[in-house]
From TrEMBL:
PANTHER family: N-ACYLGLUCOSAMINE-2-EPIMERASE (PTHR15108). It comes from Actinopolyspora mzabensis. Belongs to the N-acylglucosamine 2-epimerase family. GO terms for molecular function: isomerase activity. InterPro entries: 6-hairpin_glycosidase_sf, 6hp_glycosidase-like_sf, AGE/CE. Keywords: Isomerase. It comes from the Bacteria. One of its GO terms (biological process) is carbohydrate metabolic process. This is Mannose or cellobiose epimerase, N-acyl-D-glucosamine 2-epimerase family.
Length: 401
């Protein structure tokens, strides 16, 4: 059985990170940023440069540089250059959704904060200045102090904000705030992350039997019918998204470790409850191996495709719970999830991971096409080797001389 603490397993994880790095390196665009890779690892010329992909790749390459990966520093710098130039609005501030979409979303800004935090820890030129700007934008444009949550999106001139409120973007704001708080030493970011988690998980998810609603009204009332006609949406699917329960489980434990003695008791209990709910309702839910993408409000599988990112977050949640509790139960699940990844998702022929599979394990493109995302798989191959806090880039940062 896979032991998350064994030297042999860590060697395998190191090899997997290098394999992922080699594949992801091809995303470097000749005109800046990182492109969308197809199944074979070739950039898709029909797609624009997207901020979330460029930021995620910059984060990954910054981590790879901190791990001593050759050529990673140059790739991280390439990403920082795109975030400083073509994806940044020099007139009105903030970051565009892509090179063809001038709206400004909390989701994209969360990843800009994460990328610049990791690049700052990696001491990449210009990263610290961009991090300062990104945090200023996050605080002034997206943070709702009264609600203790983030707004979703704005138009280019910051005139109109979307009426929709989303759990997904706020989840990634928690991730970004933890990284930024560690890099800057400003504890307010951990405190804000706790406010988001307290509302969405310890209040909303708890009262819904740990089935986290994803979509909300402007006053943060759950909107269960949202996108009922778009169940396969990659970012805002109808129903509830099992993989996010697992992702939140991990983030709650990272938040607990970051807060230390200040952490409330509910963080560990909620992390356990989310993990159990995901296992109970999402794993093998339709009789086939793996986690379904979404469930309806009667816990019936709605979109049955298996997403690679859900498997990676299952790995990371099990690893975090095992690190926190040392209970063999979570080690067994950790091994189970890696076995599923190795036999189903990892593409040993063309590289990286199949991002989407049919219930019977064949590559699919119902929600995602290609392999644009190294972020989830790379973290799955790294985080089990690190402490729960500080965040990865800070944990890997060389000690000051």
């Amino acid at each position: 059985m896979t032991n998350p603490d064994s030297a042999e397993h860590h060697e395998w994880l190191t090899a997997e990170r290098r394999r992922l790095f080699d594949f992801a390196s091809a995303a470097r665009g000749s005109e800046g940023g990182f492109g969308w890779l197809d199944e074979a690892g070739k950039p898709s010329p029909s797609r624009p440069v997207e901020t979330w992909i460029t930021a995620r790749m910059t984060h990954v390459f910054s981590l790879a540089h901190l791990l001593g990966e050759p050529e990673a520093a140059e790739l991280a710098d390439h990403g920082i250059a795109a975030l400083a130039d073509q994806l940044r609005d020099s007139e009105h501030g903030g970051w565009f959704t892509s090179t063809v979409d001038t709206t400004k979303g909390a989701y994209e800004h969360a990843f800009v904060v994460l990328a610049t935090s990791s690049a700052t820890a990696a001491e990449r030129p210009g990263a610290a200045e961009l991090l300062t700007e990104a945090l200023r934008t996050l605080e002034s444009r997206f943070w709702d102090e009264q609600a203790g949550l983030g707004l979703e999106s704005w138009d280019r001139t910051w005139t109109t904000t979307e009426s929709y409120r989303g759990a997904n973007s706020n989840m990634h704001l928690v991730e970004a705030m933890l990284a930024a708080g560690d890099v800057t030493g400003e504890r307010i970011w951990q405190q804000r992350a706790l406010r988001i988690a307290g509302t969405l998980i310890d209040e909303v998810a708890r009262t819904h039997g740990w089935r986290l609603p994803e979509h909300f009204t402007p006053t943060w009332e759950p909107n269960p019918d949202y996108n009922s006609d778009r169940p396969h949406d990659p970012f805002r699917p109808h129903g509830t998204t099992v993989g996010h329960w697992l992702e939140w489980s991990r983030l709650l434990l990272q938040l607990e470790a970051s807060l230390g003695e200040e952490s409330p008791n509910w963080l560990i209990s909620d992390a356990r409850n989310l993990f159990e709910a995901a296992i109970q309702h999402g794993w093998h839910a339709d009789g086939h191996p793996g986690f379904v993408y979404t469930l309806d409000w009667q816990d019936r599988p709605q979109v049955r495709e298996r997403m690679h990112w859900v498997t990676t977050e299952a790995v990371l949640a099990a690893a975090a719970l095992h690190r926190r509790t040392a209970e063999p139960y979570y080690q067994r699940w950790y091994a189970t999830f890696w076995d599923f990844a190795r036999t189903r998702h990892i593409d040993y022929g063309q590289g990286s991971w199949h991002h989407e599979l049919t219930p019977d394990g064949r590559p699919s493109t119902t929600v995602w096409s290609g392999k644009p995302d190294a972020y989830h798989a790379y973290q799955a191959a790294l985080f089990p080797t690190l402490p729960l806090a500080p965040s990865a880039a800070t944990a890997l940062r060389p000690a000051p001389h």
